[in-house]
Amino acid sequence: MSRYYVTTPIYYVNDAPHIGHAYTTLACDVLARFMRLDGREVHFLTGTDEHGQKVEKAARDAGVSPQDFTDRVSRNFRDLASHLNVSNDDFIRTTEPRHKACCAELWRRMASSEAPNGESNIYLGKYAGWYAVRDEAFYGEDELTTGPDGRKRAPSGAEVEWVEEPSYFFRLSAWQDWLLDHYARGNTEFVGPGTRRNEVMSFVRQGLTDLSISRTTFTWGIPVPGDPAHIMYVWLDALANYVSALGWPGNETDPEGLFARFWPADLHMVGKDIVRFHTVYWPAFLKAAGLEPPRRVFAHGWWTVEGQKMSKSLGNVVKPAEMISRYGLDPVRYFLLREVPFGQDGDFSQAAIVRRINTDLANDLGNLGQRVLSFVQKNAGAVVPEPGPLSAEDRKLLDAAAGLLVQVRGDLVAAQAFNRALEAVFAVVAEANRYVDSQAPWTLRKTDQERMRTVLYVLAETIRRVAILLQPFMPDSMAKLLDQLAVPADARSFAAFDAALRPGVALPAPAGVFPRYQDMAVG
Ligand code: ME8
Hints:
- This protein is α/β, with parallel strands linked by helices and 523 residues long.
- It folds into two domains: 3-301, 3-Layer(aba) Sandwich (Rossmann fold); 350-519, Isoleucyl-tRNA Synthetase, Domain 1.
- The protein has helices at 19-37, 53-62, 66-83, 97-111, 176-184, 194-205, 234-239, 241-244, 258-262, 275-288, 320-327, 329-339, 350-379, 392-402, 404-415, 418-439, 441-447, 449-470, 475-484, 517-522, and strands spanning 3-12, 41-49, 90-93, 122-132, 137-139, 145-146, 152-153, 161-170, 191-192, 211-212, 214-215, 223-224, 227-232, 267-271, 297-300, 303-305, 308-309, 346-348.
- Strands 3-2-1-14-15-9 form a six-stranded parallel sheet, with helices on both faces. It has a four-stranded antiparallel sheet with strand order 5-4-8-10, with no helix packed on it.
- The longest helix is centred in the C-terminal third of the chain and has 30 residues, at 350-379.
- The protein is elongated, with a radius of gyration of 26 Å.
- The relative contact order is 0.11.
- The mean pLDDT is 96.
- Ligand ME8 binds next to strand 1, helix 1, helix 7 and strand 14.
- Ligand ME8 binds at residues 9-12, 15, 20-21, 23-24, 49, 238-239, 241, 270-271, 273-274, 302-303, 310.
């Protein structure tokens, strides 16, 4: 069976989960669910990034020990995954023993290997330069700007501070050519979308400097093997989660182990803020340790809220739990992945989500299901109708629905184009609504009942295909719709996509799946 390993970034525990975190996790969930329905064995990982200066400071501000702090806040992210109905197979915390052991071994392997220029991959030196705690990142002088307050800032807007301390370095400078070759190799592009790939390539072409990978001025982290005065740079620690969660290095030689089965990862999904860590540092670290790099990293865009950057100080942070209780979980899942071309930035506004709920979900899909199924209930004996001979219009709609699996698979698997996949499915929904109007089953009821049953069958079949394909996006609502079509549980995977409805099967009384937003507010 072919396998699929997909990961979210592991989130910093200094922050409460918001709609940005929900977005990345949901995108991965859709892929994981899609691949499972497509017959693949899936491993889907999310988790929390718990070490480093930023978390240490957040714990201090909260007046608790870093361990107590991370135990408490990590739970918020675990809860988020369950509120979002996310189907992750594992949740990794970087404070777990399995993770610490992995980091130590990763370091040892990097330290005992040579860079492409024949020098050792890790060496001891002294770091003197700028550091942004908010980004947990080092910056060159040339990357900084000076704000109106005279303070220097990183390109992300984070404040930087001058750091001077003994540090181990990773010989990143020697990996430049290997990285550039790597971006050009393979059938699947290593970095997506193309705009990010170009940015990464031009960053690497400009020349890489060696990377500081240990700190000595605070203690909340994983000690460097053999030199515990140093703790590992939090990004080296964090990136290692993608292999520590697979049980590496303990199961390295076990062909049945998670590592052998799932590494290299098929996809690391990340936001555009952390592309450099995943596409420059991480493949070089892995290669230095003798491990394969992941197959692909996709960087999605950034959400603003009502046109503004989301921030605690502006008080406009969108909390997933509030959105879910206001709009319902599946509408939120749908909106996030439909509204914005995946990879581009998007704006979260109440008007936009209400528009999507009322137009796409209530009017188009919800209404299609409701009017067809209640008509069948009242006028076709509450069973899957028996079709007669098919007309050209019938075939056209059935063919459009049948063609969707290949199209959606192409959009999601190769390009992570969630919005395009949804657009294609909803184009068929729109076609089905036009077909209802043009075929007018309510007129046929009086004039030609056999033809009426054919029309209803074609519609029910179309709804079945649409519902099967939308399961990864809206699992609960589509389960309800498939229940209403009496599709058995074992006929909901993509292997059963072509297994048409059986005429004569009894259908339960239909109930609306997607209420309009104002109706929800009243109800
Ligand atoms: O960077 N719009 O963690 P983090 C879209 N611990 N996505 C957003 C977003 C927004 N406004 N805000 C956050 C870290 N995200 C590291 C990762 S991985 C080895 C270590 C999402 O808590 C997006 O996926 O700052 C972004 O990359 C991630 O949250 C950053 O989460």
